[in-house]
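Tutorial handout. Part one gives the primary structure; part two gives the three-dimensional structure as tokens.
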Amino acid sequence: MTVDPARFSATSSAPALLDIGINLAHDSFDQDRDAVVQRASQVGVTRMLITGSSLASTHTAIALVQKHPEQMRCTAGVHPHHAVDLDSAQLQAFNELARRPEVVAVGECGLDYFRNFSPHEAQIAAFEAQLQLAAQVRKPVFLHQRDAHEDFMRVMGKHRAQLTGGVAHCFTAGLDEARAYLDLDLYIGITGWICDERRGHHLREVVRHIPADRLLIETDAPYLLPRDLQPKPHSRRNEPMYLPHVLATIAEARGERYEALAEITTENALRLFDWHTA
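Part two.
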């Protein structure tokens, strides 16, 4: 199934969407970032949460929010790949950045034992430091977990009571892990992984068990371009303009109306991130 972008034009009655995970600070967007934002707006993606995954990308994300204050907010944090970089100086910098009004969540933080770009001990230390920061600034956490479920649950179990909330971003696992995250009262973010017939087909069953008030949608652009787009895009770079396609796939899997799911996922994001609208 493929979404016709014309169906979701800015002049249509389709509800506005909020992409809760886009790496718009990534250098692959350097040549056409404004055009990417415009293309997204034309298909109804009117708000975006820009992911901060390092100190440098967090600064870039904040600058983007300042340029697009009505359309964007951002996170501030260190991805587990960069955990070894989170020294005392960086942590102090994040302590200040996380309090800025442009920033609505701490992260992307968590554990990644698939790539292991940072040692496990460094990842756990950086994860705990950011959870503590989120508790201090009273903002939710933007969470990453890959092949590290047991340690992730152990660390979250120590800190969850002090946190205001969070989202398991870019969820790709199975029903047991989804239920574990829901038991932590987390939201779950679904990406175009659900459109991948090779690796993500199981998510079509998983999303049926996620309560509507805990479901969020995201592209994780420039990564995870939906594989079933027709016609195939010329570029492998993902963009927020494909978020309606992701949502339509989720709606089909859940047996729900696109428009109703669009409304609830946007409401969920605005609530979790305390994103006030005019």
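Part three, for discussion. Confidence is low (pLDDT under 50) at residues 1-12. The domain at 5-272 is CATH 3.20.20.140 (TIM Barrel).
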